[in-house]
Design goal:
Number of helices: 18
Shape: globular
Strand order of the largest sheet: 7-6-15-13-14-12-10-11
Number of strands: 15
Largest sheet: 8 strands, mixed
Helix content: 25-40%
Number of domains: 3
């Protein structure tokens, strides 16, 4: 029998009440979860960052409303189920077929790479892709330092002769497939790629900094420049790379090298890595090179240094960690094709020693010294943190004494995270190995009581013979990185 109008309204009203009670119960449950202080995360595994901290109370913040705004930010940023909800949303989008747009260009524009040597001072003061302030090339002044007249310590100010590395731009396994844009990266066949855009002004600034450092270290230490390529410059065909508007990393590197002081020994890596791009030299889900990629770069450094490289069979102990999902995975909003192709992190343990000292920053600005391992067992780490197996990660100051070598040899590596996978291969070539991360070394110096955070000061204090500047080319010529370098590259 068909219900009457009154009965239908009662049923409908009861259904609405049940939905309201369920919704209210859901809100109460979510609110209760939000009150679980002990369950609030402090870091984001996916985004690789520290989450917002509960703000300190102040009358000023209470008056202008910033205290409540910061509380709201903290509550949302550290909600216990936040990453799970983000993950569920990503999977829901994938069910609906939502995907990154087809990639042609992400809106950035690269400068043309000039030919030959140029006026670095003029370029460094020119506004191009990024706004760049002129480099202060001398402590306390803006004039180019004059070369020393002391015999044996003079660094030439003449540009280097053009580099003549033979290179045809082809690789054994160049990627020719169309790319898709996902978040801040590009993806093809389950592998992510970051791209590089040449900036005249910033590249000139970097060269000026390297030249200033070389002059200050003339007669004291040999400077090596290693501008490391990123994945797009090695793994993509020229046609696919050009479709992004990205620059030729080999041409950009060689231009920088041409404009560095002749006293700087430069390490060209693109041709060697390109020749091996049918091997596992870059991660699929992360922006770093693998240990194998760093190994081929190490061999090129050995050529420039004039030493015999160790073969991979030389290393008696190795590690292998599976399931790595790195920065590309995080920056692509957990792209499904990357999730289906997790990486394996392989690492080669130095034979001479695997013990290092490192200083880790604390929240209050102090540092704690740890005895650590150059290649660490990270099998219990989160899958997003497996690259931390190398060199203790991005710590401000680190030291190794290899007691198997007793010739007093020493090296300083000034690095970003690309240098981490490179460092283990150097250990068995020196007695004393130091490395610093340029982004936070100045803070360590302040805590350690060194008023001068310059590289030359560290070289003199530790009697260091070789200085290797190991940076990926994208970081080395970024404005924020250059600002940090200007405080220590002298």
């Amino acid at each position: 029998m068909k219900p009457t109008k009154q009965e239908y309204q009662r049923i409908r009203f009861r259904s609405i009440q049940i939905k309201q009670l369920l919704f209210l119960g859901f809100l109460v449950l979510m609110g209760f979860i939000g009150l679980l202080w002990f369950a609030r995360p402090k870091t984001s595994t996916v985004e690789k960052r520290d989450l917002a901290k509960f703000p300190s109370f102040s009358l000023a913040g209470l008056w202008d409303g910033s205290f409540f705004s910061d509380v709201s930010t903290w509550y949302a940023d550290t909600y216990p189920l936040r990453e799970g909800l983000i993950d569920a949303n990503t999977k829901l989008e994938q069910l609906y077929g939502i995907r990154g747009e087809q990639m042609i260009n992400n809106g950035e524009k690269a400068d043309e790479i000039p030919s030959g040597s140029v006026d670095l001072e003029e370029l460094a003061g020119r506004t191009t892709t990024e706004t760049a302030a002129p480099v202060n090339t001398q402590n306390g002044g803006g004039q180019e330092p004059q070369p020393s007249t002391e015999q044996g310590t003079q660094a030439s100010t003449e540009p280097a002769a053009p580099v003549t590395t033979e290179y045809n731009g082809q690789g054994a396994n160049d990627v020719n497939e169309d790319l898709q844009k996902a978040g801040s990266i590009y993806i093809a066949n389950g592998a992510g790629y970051g791209v590089y855009y040449f900036s005249e002004s910033n590249s000139a600034r970097y060269c000026l900094l390297v030249n200033r450092l070389a002059k200050n270290l003339a007669g004291k230490a040999q400077v090596y420049s290693m501008l490391c390529p990123i994945s797009a410059g090695i793994m993509l065909s020229d046609e696919v790379r050009e479709s992004t508007g990205a620059s030729d990393e080999h041409a950009a590197t060689e231009w920088c090298y041409q404009n560095m002081d002749p006293s700087v020994k430069t390490v060209t890596m693109v041709p060697a890595l390109k020749a091996h791009n049918d091997e596992y030299i870059f991660f699929r889900t992360d922006h770093h090179w693998t240990a194998l990629g760093a190994y081929y770069a190490y061999r090129e450094w050995c050529k420039e240094k004039g030493v015999t490289p160790h073969e991979l069979s030389y290393f008696e102990k190795t590690y292998s960690f599976e399931g790595f999902l790195g920065t590309f995975y995080a920056n692509s909003n957990k792209n499904a094709s990357l999730a289906a192709n997790p990486d394996t992190v392989n690492a080669y343990v130095p034979n001479g020693t695997n013990t290092m000292e490192m200083y880790v920053a604390n929240n209050d600005g102090s540092f704690t010294k740890y005895a650590w391992r150059i290649v660490n067992d990270v099998s219990n780490y989160a899958k997003s943190e497996l690259y931390a197996t190398f060199a203790g990660g991005d710590q401000a100051y680190n030291y190794v004494h290899n007691e198997e070598i007793t010739d007093g040899s020493s090296v300083l590596i000034v690095k970003d995270s690309y240098g981490n996978a490179f460092i283990p291969f150097l250990i068995d070539h020196y007695e004393h190995i130091y490395w610093i991360d340029f982004r936070n070394y100045k803070k360590w110096c302040g805590w350690a009581g060194y008023s001068d955070p310059s590289i030359s000061n560290l070289v003199e204090r530790k009697n260091i013979q070789d200085v290797i500047l190991c940076h990926n080319i994208s970081i080395a010529t970024a404005s924020s990185a250059l600002e940090a370098m200007e405080t220590i590259y002298k």
